[in-house]
Amino acid sequence: MAEQQTITFDFKNTYSGLPEHFFAKVSPTPVAAPSLIKLNVELSQELGLDPQSLASMEGVEVLAGNRVALGSEPLAAAYAGHQFGHFVPQLGDGRANLLGEVVDVSGRRFDIQLKGAGRTPFSRGGDGRAALGPVLREYILSECMAALGVPTTRALAVVATGETVLRERPLPGAVFTRVAASHLRVGTFQYFAARGDVEAVRTLATYTIERHYPEAAHAHKSYLALLEGVIARQARLVAQWMLLGFIHGVMNTDNTSISGETIDYGPCAFLEAYDPEQVFSSIDQQGRYAYNNQPHAMHWNLVRFAETLLPLIAEEEGSEAAGSDSAKEALESFIPQFEAARREGLLCKIGVVTEREGDVDLAEDLLQRMAKSDADFTLTFRRLCDAAEFTDEDERFTALFVNPSAFHSWAAVWRTRLLLEPASVKERAAMMRRVNPAFIPRNHLVQEAIDAAYRGDFRPFEDLLSVVLRPYEDSAGHEHYESPARPEQRVLQTFCGT
Ligand code: AMP
Ligand code: MG
Questions:
Q1: pTM for the full model?
Q2: pLDDT for 312
Q3: Ligand 1 binding residues, C-beta < 6 A
Q4: 20 to 30 Å CA-CA from 218: which of 157, 328, 428, 434?
């Protein structure tokens, strides 16, 4: 049993106040020799947590799961989920432990969760632990997504456990502290719906509305408004992923958050050479979660979410048929909402703010040329910002295309179109640089940082992090971070690493 301690997190625990069958009350399992590898000082300050106290011996023990902070009511949440299309009625936090919730300076509530905190009643065959590599990966990727302006869970800390975990080979263990608007998932709703427990679904939906969609509480039809709210947030989220070349990799319903945040960074990765069919995850054999399938995968997940709410929506609508019609209508709005958000973002990426006929075709035409020319997704759009400002920058741009003439003919049409835009050349380039990052955590760089960390050298991790935390700022001397992988550096597959 972990020791109680006095550092106050000022935990407020609404989730542990839900009915007993929503979770298992379980404390983290202490580790042999906790040591702090990384503390996110800025995030801890935003959350109103004292970084010095978190970095103290007692603080690190809390972040390792060796001490239970005062006010914490640790638990492992129950959830189910469709994994690659197959329903698993019980998944749950098999290696995660919700310590409690904190309310930040602006009144927003966040879960503080340890990942890799030991076995729980939901562990099935697993060891409840996490290896250092995947933890560092989640740290880099999730913090970069936040810096890019994408809704996401955040990384508060990484603590080495001093223990070894057995994966394909023995690896050093780590505990990751994750911060999320909540850990409610589509799979949380499915857990109760699959058991025919409509009252639990109602309790969960009411809790969710209060926590994430307070406007739905005042709506005429609250549960339908909840469904519509989740659909709207996920449509924007997936559009943002697509506009940045992000591939989640495991869009199972248990990894689809109700708050609309990117959650569960496993085998996720950013595109390099633009290929709409790209899949990195070793476990995604069928390409179910390929880059260009992501909106469809999310739609499928949202249909599963809607199914769980059907009895409640039917009540609101007065009949099953009317409930199912309303839910269908809401679901049918997902792809159009996604497309509108993507279209708007795509036009911004090429410097167009006032949409005219033909603009979307122009942008799609560039993407097609990029695909044929193996052009790097991130760099192409970043160089386009320069090309929008200086015509003599075209050489740097065309160098990204296997067939440079593919760009010249496109750019002639693009430049003529830009003449019709109201913004000045400088304003336009600045706007484009705010949506087209220079830096993303390239797969080979993440891998390099992890390999070095396994040798005890955390410098590459820190260096990469400092660059990707300012993704939209040009900085001299950082070509190493900006350049795509050379053929021999290319990471062709990513792994869950659980
Ligand atoms: P994930 O693939 O990380 O989304 O996890 C899917 C399910 O497997 C969840 O229920 C996790 O809690 C569980 N899980 C993943 N890794 C472990 C582990 N090392 N020990 C126990 N459960 C795990
Ligand atoms: Mg998961």
A1: 0.97
A2: 98
A3: 91-95, 122-123, 126-129, 250, 254-255, 264, 266, 496, 498
A4: 328
